[in-house]
Amino acid sequence: MNFSPVNIMGTMPEIYLTVLGSLLFLMEPFVPAKKRSLLGIFAIFALVFAMIATLGLNGKGLPLYQGLYIVDPFSNFFKMVIYLGTILTILFSLPYLEKEEIHVGEYYGFLLFAAVGMMIMVSAGDLITLFLGIELMSLCFYVLVGLKRNSLRSVEASFKYFLLGAFAAAIFLYGVSLLYGASGTETLSGLAQFISNPGALRPMVFAGMILTMVGFAFKVSAAPFHMWTPDVYEGAPTVVTGFMASVGKVAAFGVFLRVFWVAFSSNRDHWSLLIVMVAILSMIVGNIVALVQTNIKRMLAYSSIGHAGYAVIALLNPSRESLFALMFYMFTYLFMTLGSFGIILILRRKGVEGEEISDFVGLNKKNPLAAFLMLIFMFSLAGIPPFGGFLAKFYIFMAAVHAGYTWLAVVGVLLSAVGAYYYIRVVMAMYMKDPVETVEFAPNRMEGMALFVTAAMTVILGIFPLPFVHYIETSLAILVP
Amino acid sequence: MTFLSVPILTFLIFFPVVASLLLLPFYKRTGTDGVVKWIALGITVIEFLLSLSLLIGNNPHLYQMQFVENHLWIPFGNIHYALGIDGISLVLIVMTTFLMPMTILTSWVGISKNLPLFMINILVLEGAMIGVFCATDFVLFYVFWEAMLIPMYLIIGVWGGPNRIYAAIKFFLYTLAGSLLLLVSIIALYFVGGHTFDITRLSGQHYPMTFQILAFLAMFVAFAVKIPMFPFHTWLPDAHVEAPTAGSVILASIMLKMGAYGFLRFSLPMFPDASHFFTPFMLTLSVIAIIWGAFMALAQEDMKKLIAYSSVSHMGVVTLGIFVANVQGIEGALMQMLNHGITTGALFLCIGVLYDRSHSRLLSEYGGLAKQMPVYSTLLVIFALSSLALPGTNSFVGEFLVLIGSFKTHAVVSSLATTGVILSAMYLLYMLSRVVWGVYTPKNYAMPDLHAYEWGSLLPLVVMVIVIGLLPNPVLSLFHQSVAHLVGQMQPVPLASLH
Q1: How far apart (Å, rounded) are the C-alpha atoms in residues A237 and A243?
Q2: Would B405 be classed as within a structural domain?
Q3: Which residues of chain B have pLDDT under 70?
């Protein structure tokens, strides 16, 4: 390993966040309990600082540390999304943690470390670096999910997630070791070179690829590796659920895409069928099981499985269309998911979070603004224009048709018509029924700001996405000319 | 042409949407409903007057798109914000803006719950509907087409009858499922038709037959659900019965036309060979819709259901006219669309008048209204006669044109469709005999004759019924060129030019 200035400069954002995150842990004992929110604000500043550092890197796609680490516009795009998502999460967390009485200073430290883990994931140029990133993120998630120490559900969710996550990590690592055994390298470029030889395709390589795919599918909660999702999403503190469902998933998709496009691209004929199966299964499981959920967090968990199914379609073909589709999808998905979890965590019935769909009944009478924002998020998740979710799905279907999978697009649209039912059921509860119980919805300034940003972005991405489209187009140029 | 330095079509689309923000300050305030109604009425009337400028500025001798606007909207995928209208869209836009003030007037007392939100929905819906008729980029069209669902879903679901939630969800899911297949065929067209979503450029091309058939079928589902054609119509009676009067009027008069508009704008010019291939199938479905809808209407006790099934029957005439694909047929279909919009809208308004007074729509609840409400009864008779296509009223022109158009090529189909005219006389006269004539049975509610706002909503429609009935030519000449061009595009391509 060579710690030359170029390498150090390239990883400056990660270094900042690690140092500032550690500082957060050190500062925590000295900050009085009442002023814990200062730590959150400190974390926001740390992220803004890292964001500026990332903007300063004009990524030419040079591999740093002998190819272990890649800083290019593609990874920078995902990093910007991670910063934004984490900042929004912190804005939602500050009041939420107070209300739930789980306001511990370490929370922000874990959040930052999870963000660093994701950044390492999307920048990894080597499977071991990648594994480090995934584990850093996952370990922080295990802790964050179990943050409500007094709640049985939270602890159970944390334990479940930990056990299954450990299995997934082991499977992934086994896949990496098989690939290493076959090729003698674990850098992505080295693997790509090795696999492009016609003689390289031995069962060992296939097994390695399939096992790594299992690891990724677990992280993006695609069926049939989705079993943990509903329980963990339901049990975790809502703000953590929102963070995992949006930012965590975006990062996982970023690395999923890079590994399968860069390293395994030349034998895509051999694995595209698996991706198709994962896509169809996820769309079916996600959209159909969500229909019968009564808990809105579980419903959104199944919806996120469905969305993973749409997003993996973009892995099928290494074209500009696919890459753009996935990046646009992730960008939009971040805002609409965070926003809908934001509404859930602000909504309170007798001081308890409103997690049941029945808690939304008659919301329009009590608080028209909250109902309207939720309407935006729900219609956007259902993929109805003029919201961002529509364009996101539109580009995914376009990628599918471009790749020659028109039939898959047809399956996708039919299942999304099925899926629309559970989203509009929430709208129905809010607008078409009379309130039975009093729910309160009183966002403070931070929550209001975060909600405003997520809702505004969801609308802007559907109506005037031009600047973001430009940004995505420049970011993807490095992978697809 | 511009208005306040905004291009006129953009202005027409976004004026109601932006102006609806004026109603926000009245949200959740009591005692301001009067102001809200007047503001909404003012907005729709201004919109109507502005849309008249399209009639003045339009050149009826051109078949090309006019008032064109074109800006790059989203560079990835070459999606444009492209607007333009020809004669076909022109009449539909003016019909839309003409009917919208009536929908406000008919809600004058009928809607009491959360009035500002209702009016905002109506205005947003108006903008989206005009957008559907103006868009010349396929993605933009689709955005407006789907965006319409949201306000309509709320209008049915929030202000509808007792079974409104079921009806609203059924309406939403039916239309959505149909439309999503349209989306796939739009995307497929993009790749087959040379990386563009421009409707005009996609229309002139010749696609391979298998592609034409598949894409035609996918679009067929979307448009057939909207019209609704025979096996896809089951959402319509539910939605009509549950929707408030304004919702029924918009559904019947404007939204149903969008399916037919889709056939005229996309299916016929883009897939002429597939259209010819499917003509027997489409004609059969049309005739089934005409006869079956009429028989169903005969059996109804609920007046709204009766008119809803009569819509299925009348829209069957429209699809019949479209798929005989000659000038008379298509012009007749367009006339029929326009007239169905006016007449059926008026009939729903009339039912709304009764419902506001008695909260019942059952035929058995009424009788002898001619004595009690003479003016109302006169108008109802006029609209009913118009609906059964009495010569001298508007609907006669359209149905007659369709029937001659179809008789030239498909005599049997045409004769079968004629029975629909007889059947429509049966159910409409039956309705009149139950409601207007007969013995007046006093109930425990007062039945005063028309109020001022009801006059306002019905009188313009009576005038249109008679004016179009007597002088159809000015209307026909508006879209004659566009239809002639469309029929020209439909001609089978000579084999030599294929190579």
Answers
A1: 10
A2: yes
A3: 442, 444-445, 492-499
For residues A171 and A169, what is the distance between their CA atoms, to the nearest angstrom? 5
Directed axis angle between helix A152-183 and helix A127-145, to 10°?
170
How far apart CA B46 and CA A137 sit, in angstroms, is 58
In angstroms, how far is CA A71 from the centroid of its own chain? 20
* Mean pLDDT for all residues in chain A: 88
CB contact under 8 A, A401 and B75: no
Classify residue A481: in a domain, yes or no. Answer: no
Least Cα separation, residue B20 to chain A (angstroms):
15
Distance, in Å, from the CA atom of A478 to the CA atom of A470, rounded to the nearest integer, reads 14
CA distance B174 to chain A (A): 9
CA distance A409 to chain B (A): 7
- Contacts A423 to B, Cβ<8 Å: none
In terms of CA atoms, which chain B residue is nearest residue A427? B154
**Quick count: other Cβ atoms within 10 Å of Cβ B231?**
11
The 10s digit of each residue's pLDDT in A8-40 is 888 888 999 999 999 988 888 888 878 888 888
Best mutation target, A379, A432, A471, A472, to test chain B (most B CBs within 10 A): A432
| B21-B23-B29-B30 Cα dihedral, nearest 10 degrees | -170
The verdict on residue A382 lying in a domain is: yes
Closest CA to B462 of B364, B349, B315: B349
- Confidence (pLDDT) at B134: 92
Taking the CA of residue A177 as centre, how many other CA atoms within 13 Å lie in the half-sphere pointing to its CB?
A: 6
Nearest CB neighbour to B191, from listed A328, A402, A424: A402
Helices B235-242 & B303-324, crossing angle to 10 degrees?
140
B432 within domain boundaries? yes
Domain of residue B473, residue span: 271-491
Chain A residues close to B143, C-beta within 8 Å: 385-386, 390
CA closest to A395 among chain B residues = B77
In the block, which residue shows the tokens 């224009």? A385
Tens digit of each residue's pLDDT (9 = 90 or more) over A118-144: 999 999 888 999 999 999 999 999 999
Residue B21 lies in a domain: no
Give the model's pLDDT for residue B495. 47
Distance between CA A181 and CA A170 in Å, rounded?
16
Q: How many domains does chain A have?
A: 1
**Looking at residue A260, what DSSP letter applies?**
I
Query: Is pLDDT of A106 > 90?
Result: no
Residue A384 lies in a domain: yes
Q: A390: part of which helix (H) or strand (E)?
A: helix A388-402
Burial of residue A440 (number of CB atoms within 10 Å: 0-12, 13-18, 19+): middle
Interface contact flag, A413 B181, Cβ < 8 Å: yes
Pairing of strands B6-7, B66-74: unpaired
Residue A421 lies in a domain: yes
- As given in the structure block, the two tokens for residue A371 are 């109902």
Which residues on A lie below 8 Å from B173 (Cβ)? 417, 420-421
Residue of B24, B174, B176, B211 best to disrupt the A interface, most CBs of A under 10 A: B176
Number of domains composing chain B: 1
B374-387 and B327-358 are packed helices; what angle lies between their axes, rounded to 10 degrees? 150
Q: How high is the ipTM of this complex?
A: 0.92
Cβ distance A473 to B75 less than 8 Å, yes or no, reads yes
- Interchain pair B147, A386: CB under 8 A: yes
Q: Which of A320, A379, A401, A460 to mutate to test the interface with B (most CBs of B within 10 A)?
A: A401
Residue A439 belongs to domain spanning? 5-476
Q: Is B297 exposed, middle or buried (0-12, 13-18, 19+ CB in 10 A)?
A: buried
